[in-house]
Description:
This protein has helices at residues 13-49, 59-66, 108-111, 203-208; strands at 68-74, 78-83, 90-92, 125-126, 135-139, 145-149, 152-153, 172-173, 176-180, 187-188, 194-195. The protein is an alpha+beta fold. The chain has a three-stranded mixed β-sheet. It has a three-stranded antiparallel β-sheet with strand order 3-9-8.
Amino acid sequence: MQTPQPMHARTHPLLHRGGRRFLAAGALGAAAVLALAACSKSTTAGTGSASSPSSSPSPSASADAAVTIATASLPGVGTVLVNGNGQTLYLLSSEQGGKLTCTDDNGCTKVWPDTELPSGKTAGIAGTGVQASLLGTVKSPDGKLYVTYNTFPLYTYVGDTKTGTAAGQGITSFGGTWAAITPAGVAATTGGGSASPSASASPSAKATATPSPKMSSSGGYGY
């Protein structure tokens, strides 16, 4: 006759299998929690690294700004034309009527960049304070179109290193005198006035003159 085992020493088979199932379920739960945590970290890291790039003007917007003609008030000069980037626009006295004496060939446009219309555009854009009826174009011998205002081709000046300046005002070079242009389509004068085109020397006389190079009072070189 076998001695009966105490109750605590017996393990029912069903209870034993249930314990193993409980342990297995616990292990699976722990693995699921770890997987969710790893996924969360991955998602957070991905979101942080995928920051949206800063917005920048599209090429078409930049092109439009260069040929948009507006106005601005400059200290000591008065209200003059500027482009959409705020750069002061100039006329060359010898070019009234659309005569192009400032060209790539003579090096003028390296100092006085022209306002060339991009491919597909046929006219400048009239901004605030501008007389749209005075806007026009002139075509160069190679077929390029340039914006004009009151028949003067328009230029910027490399010496204007910031907006609101007119460092090119009064420089004499490339057959004429450079001046900021007013909304009326004439040369601005220092002090805020404007000079009538007829008040300056005739374009033909200036175009044929060949002065010796000298430093102008405005800091540029005469030609």
